[in-house]
Amino acid sequence: MIHRILLLLKLILIAGVSMAQYVEVQANYNSVGDCIFSASNNAKVPMYLHINFADLENTTFNEPLPYITKVEPGFNSLFTLQRDLDAGIPRFNYDIETFRSNPTADVDLDFPYLIPLKEGKSASVFDVKSIDGFWGNETPDSWYAKGFMAGQGDAVFASRNGIVAELVEESRTGDSRIWYHAWTKSITLLQSDGTLICYHGVQYNPEQLVVGEKVYAGQKIGELANRNGELVVLIFHDSLFNQKLSFVIPQFVVNKNGDAEILNIVKPYIIYHPKTIRRMEMTNREKRKLLK
């Protein structure tokens, strides 16, 4: 009898796959009545999944709360709700949310970002006065962005390792619900701490940079597209608790020793890309290959 019940529930759960954006969650019972959760990420980049249980019967959820997990492209095993041995099969209700960045990101405010222009040159910094259009018709209540002056066509480099999440040319197309923001002429990377970094005012070569590709600190990612020579950098992530964006005030490397500070607009900076900083988030294999 229990096997018939398990088979019926398994079919119901598969047929009722929960989906938000690109991520599909499945909950399948095994032969002893445990319920095994998995997720399929149909995007080309990692996503963050939040699962919230409203009711649980005949089982216990033993994962840390809130349950937020990074789901890589493709199939991901999540967790198992184990059946209480002296009770019936697990029964539950749950909701899911998906995020493009980590909504509970533990941000290192002292992380040393590279100034995203060519090493050895001098960089002028300016305070960004407006990010109109970044979030559609809305502007976040509190935001931060840093601007750099350069020449049209100057090379732009990654300030930190990341995975290419979105590449946008002079115009946008497609479903706006899957955009990372509303800006054009931009490159957006998902960084290892779960934050997103947007380089605005950049053109890229589609033969050299594609969504889902990993890029490294100090790697050229594009060229400055704006005639006024402005490059704008934003670091931000979703917030689980207030449904708003959180912005990061980054520190940038200011000398060959890798020391970093919040940049001051009153003075120019010589640009340094020290290997000690570039290698921070690389594997040993990546160090051997990229930092010979």
Walk me through what this model shows.
With 292 residues, the protein is mainly β. Helices cover 9% and strands 38% of the residues. Strands 9, 10, 12, 13, 14, 16, 18, 19 and 22 form a 9-stranded antiparallel beta sheet that branches. It has a 4-stranded antiparallel beta sheet with strand order 1-2-3-6. Strands 5-4-7 form a 3-stranded antiparallel beta sheet, with no helix packed on it. Strand 20 and strand 21 (260-261) form a beta hairpin. The protein is elongated and about 70 Å long. The protein starts with a helix and ends with a helix. Mean pLDDT is 90; it is low at 1-20.
| CA radius of gyration | 22 Å
Number of helices: 3
Approximate shape: elongated
Question: Major β-sheet, in short?
Answer: 9 strands, antiparallel
* C-alpha end-to-end distance: 65 Å
Q: Give the fraction of residues assigned to helices.
A: under 10%
How many E-type strands? 22
What is the mean pLDDT?
90
Please indicate the percent range of residues in DSSP E strands (runs of 2 or more).
35-45%
Low-confidence stretches: 1-20
Keywords for this entry:
single chain; 292 residues; 3 helices; elongated; mainly beta; 9-stranded antiparallel sheet; 9% helix
Summarize the structure.
With 292 residues, the chain is mainly beta.
